[in-house]
Amino acid sequence: MKKIKKSPYILLLAVVILSLLSGCKQYDNFTTYFNTYYNKKRIIAEAEDEFSYQEEKKRVKPRVFVPETKVSVPNIPKSGTPPFMTEFIIDQQKLQPVKVKLDSIIIKGSKILARHPKSDYIEGTLYLMALSYFYRNEWLPSQIKCSELIDKFPAGELSPDAHLLLCKNLFIQRKFHAGKIMLSRTVDISWQLRRYDILSEAFRLEAELALYKNDLDAAVRPYKQAIAQSDDGLMKAKWQLDMAALLYRINKFEQAEKAFAKVEDYSPDYLATFEASLYRALSLMRLSRFEEANKILKKLESDGKFEEWESYIFAAKMTELRLRNDDKNFSIAEKFADSAYVNHPLIIANYYEKGMDLYNKNEYSIAKRFFARSRNMRTPVYSASEKMFFLLNAWEQKHMTIDQTLNSFRDSIEIPNEIKAIVALNSFELGRIHEQLGNLDSCTIFYKQAVDYSPLDDENSARYIYAYIRMIKDGNPMLADSLYDVLVDRYPYTEYGQEAIQVQGYTENYLIDPVYETFKSGQKLRMSREFKFAVAQFLKVFINWEDSPLAPRALYNIGWIFEKDLRQADSAYYYYKLLVEKYPDSEYAKDVKNSVLYLAHVKTGAPLPDDLNPKKRESEKPQFQLKGEGQDENIKVNAKTLNPGSVDSSPAEILNDPMKLLNNATESLSPENLIPDLKLNLPQEFNKMFQSQPDTTNKNIEELEEKK
């Protein structure tokens, strides 16, 4: 009976515990959301708005498709970001204003993972962190976070998004095999969770990858498979429209026209119906079937439900005028559009295509005006318009600079090297512009012009020669091989010379440092006591390579030879003085600076500054006593026992009055008087004062040289 009485309490206790536990879970979710996760979502939205990367949530107007035009080098690059992935990369200029926000998202995400590992927001946190890393162009960290999300939440709400983002990371890193496998898994999980938006994006990536590899059949295959597998008429119409748009973009207008017409066989909404009809008409125009196209446009105009998109119909009519080369009526339509349909995306696309028409006719100045107009707002042609505008603008400026520079020296017999260097640099940059435009013949001409004008002593010549080699090595390998040898001979220490050495198969021992070898030769000659030749080698280092770190060492060694080995004080003073003047901040100049200043004052007779005067130490007794102060008779020195040219006074008097020594400098510096008399009976303390202390600087240099 007691157990029966206790059972309600036990049940009540269990309910309370469960309530507390669930309450803790709800509290954890509540604090996680409002303290951190909410802020993360807000910040990521602000960041995406900053660089216009926000995905299209609900489309309410027709899309803009533009046939592709080749304005870059046609060869598929073997490194770097694949061209079809560049649209997903945020450049540094756009990233800079939001970098702090993205950092904040990563920091907040790390806090959630560390402090709330069991909350319901871990999946969203991992995805936002992966997205932030992706926007920061940090592909590997983004890839890791996507993998974590997929491992922990394989069928989660954000699993398709993580799969797709992981595919983008892999493709940007050129991991195509792994990317294709992950793209296949993305399609599977999107079908499973009915994420048709992710599915459509996955199909687009598959198509772009196939086009990148020049496989048209593989590009349209995903759309055909999806249409065959789906039972949803609306999605069938959508994917049929996407496939037709793909064909339109790659200039397959006949196939595109048929594909657009087939959209009506399914169940398109009114927006898809308008897009299919509009671009079917545009496809017919590009096939010069203008009458059929105009019938479709008139049908669209008469349909009241498409009245809000009449500007797109007007843009299609402008396309007809452009294709018919009716410049007069196109200008009239352009003026009307500027007032009636300002910054309309399809009209802006028309301006871009008009600019490309003029560019292909070599009318660069007029083409630049249309490219300037088509870069006013973000449309599918924005990046291409901006690129073409800046390239043509730079083309115009470089041509103007070259022409003005050469015209100013037209009557001169010889153009100065400084002017040649300017012409060479602008010619090289002009060649780079043509290379980006795909004009390879013009590119080769201007690279050669840069090589011809560049002075031989200009290291930029190596860059010009290398660029010229790049353009001619396939068509003229013999000339390219000769130019590689020029790079090796004249510019071996540049990055281009280094590559030329590898291409030509030279060994590492080919390069010899002439400065070091010359200096080392001087050191060996000095050690062999071949002082004349040693000085010549050290002088060669200083004269030929004045800016080398070995130049001050060379001057120091010359001064050392004259001072210690040859005992020629004036020559030593000259080179030490030159060392102090040329390289005042070097350690070698600092070592001899005080000696040079002291001797300079002695030679000119100027009074010594305080810092060169010997300081008296009051705590020490004087080494010598003056006459009359208890001087020992044994240490008296007769002036006549000194050198004949010396002063007529005792050494103690000389120390107290150095000016007496300076007054007789001419006599005392004669070669005969410089020979010391070793028979002088001087006390030991006096001798120590005049003994020269060994200079260990050069000894350290020699030891360091031997270790090398």
Can you offer a commentary on this structure?
With 708 residues, this protein is an all-alpha fold. Among the domains are: 1-50 and 90-214, Tetratricopeptide repeat domain (Serine Threonine Protein Phosphatase 5, Tetratricopeptide repeat), CATH 1.25.40.10; 409-510, Serine Threonine Protein Phosphatase 5, Tetratricopeptide repeat (Alpha Horseshoe), CATH 1.25.40.10. 68% of the residues lie in helices and 0% in strands. The radius of gyration is 43 Å and the shape is extended.
CATH fold description of the domain at 1-50 and 90-214 = Serine Threonine Protein Phosphatase 5, Tetratricopeptide repeat
**What overall geometry do the principal axes of the alpha carbons give?**
extended
Q: In what range is the share of β-strand residues?
A: under 5%
The amount of helix comes to 55-70%
Regions with little confidence, pLDDT below 50 for 5+ residues: 1-5, 30-34, 53-58, 71-75, 619-649, 668-693, 695-702
SSE class: mainly alpha
The whole-angstrom Rg is 43 Å
| SS element count, helices | 33
Query: Overall mean pLDDT score?
Result: 79
Biggest sheet, in brief?
none
**Spatial separation of the terminal alpha carbons:** 99 Å
